C-alpha cells in the first residue's frame, strides 16, 4: 500500500473545534479583524461615494472639455453667470432646467458638464439630466469656486480673466 502525501483525518476531527474555532473565539483576534474591516471600508469610502456623484476636478473638467468637446451648462442665475463663468458655458438656471433639459445638447451621447457656484445644485441637476436620457453627465466638483481656486480662466462679460 502506497502512502498518501497528506494525512487523512476522520470527519469528527474536522468539526470538533480545531484551531480555527479557537482563533475566532479569542477576543483579541476578533478586535483585530474588526479593525481591519473598518479601516478597509474607510479607505474605500472616498471612491465609493464619489462614484455616484461623478464629480470632476478642475483639471479633469478641462480635459473633458478640450478632448471630448463636453457641453458646459452653468446653472447659476444670470447675474452670477455674468460676473464670471467658464469659457464656452451655456447659462440655464437650475429652476428652468426641467423645462429646457431636452434642448441642452443635440446628441445625447456627448458629455455634459454641469456647473454651479459650489457643486451642490449641480449634483441635484445631474439626476434630472440623466433621467432625460443623457448618457454621460459630469459635475464640476466644488463648482466655479473650485475652478477659480485652481487658477482656471473665467469669462466676465466677454473678456477672459
Automatic annotation (TrEMBL):
Q: Which residues form the Rhodanese domain?
A: 66-156
InterPro entries from the xrefs? GlpE_sulfurtransferase (IPR050229), Rhodanese-like_dom (IPR001763), Rhodanese-like_dom_sf (IPR036873)
Q: Which Pfam families match?
A: Rhodanese
Keyword list, A-Z: Membrane, Transmembrane, Transmembrane helix
The record lists the membrane-crossing segments as 27-45
Q: What is this protein called?
A: Rhodanese domain protein
